[in-house]
Amino acid sequence: MLRYSFVALTASFALTATLSAQTKQQGKKKDKELPAQVELAPHEAAKIFTDETPVAFTLTANYDRLRHDRKEDAPWRWASLTVADSAEGNIELPLKVRTRGIWRLNQCDLPPLRLDFVKSTVKQTEFAKLDKPKLVMHCRDNDEYEQYILQEFQLYRIYNLLTQYSNRVRLARVTYADSGSGKVIARRWAFLEEEPAAVAYRVGGVLVKQKGAGPSDLEPNADALFALFQYFIGNTDWSVNGLHNVEVIDTQLGYVPVAYDFDFSGAVNTRYATVDPRLPIHRVRDRLYRGYCVPLESYPPAYALFNAKRDSIYALYRDSLGQLIKGDRVKETLEYFDDFYRTINDPRVAKHEIEDRCLGGGR
């Protein structure tokens, strides 16, 4: 089943005047709350995203009710999160949860969740300053689907190595306790994901919600890196123009695209991942460059950055978090990355597979 009908495959369109107007209006609204110089200043990430040590907690909710919340405008439901504290023992934090997603909302045993903490109760905890983060969790309660979570988590870590314009993540060992039955229904790996507005705030930018971004609207170097990352992980399930699995941030550099949601990528290679039949590939492991056309001089710095970070990227699969991935998945993933590096380090192949396949008009 396809999750999305792509807005444009062979053409792209410039941002309309509405985009500029909306962005300026967003800035004006914020100016009433914060001084202009604060608005443009970078900020620290929320505390939860400043440490890589996995956090463990119990999330108690009425999961039977949540399983029936399959609509996009599902209501918030009360829940609680219990986390161990070295000084006070277990601390129970009230919060609300809501189902989210598109494909997973209707396909998973338990739909993925968004969390909304009661701000006054988390000020002195590592959950402080979170703005309705996503909890990216297993779709099926088995080891295979849990491994998909760990594999996708690794891709966010790689993206963080390459650019600050990426969502921070924190691995979590979550115990899911049902408030109705009082029973534990699952205990699996998941991860918390930094919200798009929080990414924009951290880098000193403004989140843009207007669709329609084309190649002439985006900062070319950031755009080239963004699209090359999607190619690196073998992801075609995105659209800048349609803001599908993409956010756009208005920064001092210009408009910067940010990628998220990688479970349909070739690097994760889930059993449920599919390719849009209109694309000239048949498997998610087949790479296809779908980035906008940028000036030719924007590609070499992106290639150079990937080469400079290669050892650090591969090292992520040898550290304590990467070692949570079992079986041959690490070997297969690194071999998949090897193929990417062969492409970008052969000028003839890179031109044919990447630079000549760009979308959106001439340079």
Mind sketching the topology for me?
Layout: H1 17-31, H2 36-39, E1 55-61, H3 63-67, E2 77-85, E3 89-99, H4 103-107, E4 113-117, E5 134-136, H5 143-162, E6 169-178, E7 184-193, H6 196-202, E8 206-208, H7 220-232, E9 246-250, E10 255-259, H8 299-308, H9 310-315, H10 329-344, H11 347-353
Parallel strand pairs: 1-6
Antiparallel strand pairs: 1-2, 2-3, 3-4, 4-5, 5-7, 6-7, 8-9, 9-10
Helix pairs in contact: 7-8
Describe, in plain words, how this protein is organized in 3D.
- The chain is an alpha+beta fold and 363 residues long.
- Helix content is 30%, strand content 19%.
- The chain has helices at residues 17-31, 36-39, 63-67, 103-107, 143-162, 196-202, 220-232, 299-308, 310-315, 329-344, 347-353; strands at residues 55-61, 77-85, 89-99, 113-117, 134-136, 169-178, 184-193, 206-208, 246-250, 255-259.
- A 7-stranded mixed barrel has the order 1-2-3-4-5-7-6. A 3-stranded antiparallel β-sheet has the order 8-9-10.
- A hairpin with a 4-residue loop joins strand 9 (246-250) and strand 10.
- Helix 7 crosses helix 8 (299-308).
